[in-house]
Each structure stands twice: as C-alpha cells, then as structure tokens.
C-alpha cells in the first residue's frame, strides 16, 4: 500500500469507523451491523479531500472520462476533490451531482454539473453496502445519456454491493474494504 493510501486509511480508522457489538447500527440499506463507516468526517476534511483527490485521480486519469460524480451527498466531496486535483495536474475532469429526486423548478433535472449527453463518466460512492445508491446514480446517468465507464468506491462494506454494481458496470474498484478498517494499526 502506498503512503497516500496508508494516510487515508489511518484517517478513516480514526474519524469514520465505529464498532459496537452491543448496540447495532442501522444502515441506509436497512440492514443492521456492529460496524459503521461514516466517511463524511474524512471526505469533508482538508487532508481527506487532498488524499482522496490524488488517489481517485490516479484511478481514473487514463480512462478518457469527462466527468466524475454520483448520488448526493456521499459522492459530492469525492467528485469535487477529483475535479480540483485533475485540473491542478493539467488533465481536467468535471464533477457532477445526481440529485435524489429531479428538481421541479428552475432548469429542473436530476443531474447537476458541466456534463452533456455522450460524456464518458465515472460514478463514485463513499461507502457501499448493497449497491443501491450507486445503482441509482448509474441509472440516472444513463437516463441523461452518459456513458458510465467505471464505479469507484471509497469503502466497500463487503456485503455484496460491489458485486451488484459489477453486474451493471464492467469496471468497479474499491479503494478500501471494511476488513481493511477492522485491521489493527494505521
């Protein structure tokens, strides 16, 4: 594991990972688990954003994508970190957001960002359990006319979500797995 990933894993262990075998956490999927990963303290922190931007950019820079995004709120900071990093490295990739519901006022729509039908994109997800959020983002992107080239996940809870998404998109990668966060050390 390279140094940037080690640093990001350490941040996730310190700020995002919780274990409570006595009182289970209810997950967005509806499942209950003694493990909880709230990536937001890391994805909204300055060091987390810097590391995420670098790591995710390295994973997408050779895919010929025009934009990166996913379902709000979890994907937003990741997509923005990659967009900024890509610009600073001279290979701009725009960010976009998939709203949970289409906006009915203004210009309307479900997708927001500098994108157009035909663009090749990557979908990002902060934490994946069943894959429901990523699948919604993929469907919305395709409905808009985007070509989904890859799905990138910050933390795969290893509960079938990555595999469910892989049935829809040929390339699905996770930076970390729940088992990485459960391992001692940083």
Short description:
By secondary structure, the chain is α/β, with parallel strands linked by helices.
List keywords for this structure.
two-stranded antiparallel sheet; six-stranded mixed β-sheet; globular; 186 residues; alpha/beta; Rossmann fold; 37% helix
Description:
It is a single chain. This protein has 186 residues and is an alpha/beta fold. The protein has one domain: Rossmann fold. The protein has 7 helices and 10 strands. A 6-stranded mixed beta sheet has the order 7-6-5-8-9-10, sandwiched between helices. It has a two-stranded antiparallel sheet with strand order 1-4. Helix 1 crosses helix 3 and helix 3 packs across helix 4. The longest helix is centred in the first third of the chain and has 15 residues. It starts with a helix and ends with a helix.
Topology (elements, then pairings):
Blueprint: H1 3-15, E1 17-19, E2 25-26, E3 32-33, E4 35-37, H2 40-43, H3 46-60, E5 67-71, H4 76-88, E6 94-103, E7 109-113, E8 120-128, H5 132-144, E9 147-156, H6 161-166, E10 172-177, H7 178-182
Parallel strand pairs: 5-6, 5-8, 8-9, 9-10
Antiparallel strand pairs: 1-4, 2-3, 6-7
Using the 3D structure, state the CATH architecture: 3-Layer(aba) Sandwich
Total strand segments: 10
| pLDDT < 50 runs, ≥5 residues | none
Spatial ordering of strands, largest sheet: 7-6-5-8-9-10
- Count of separate DSSP helical elements: 7
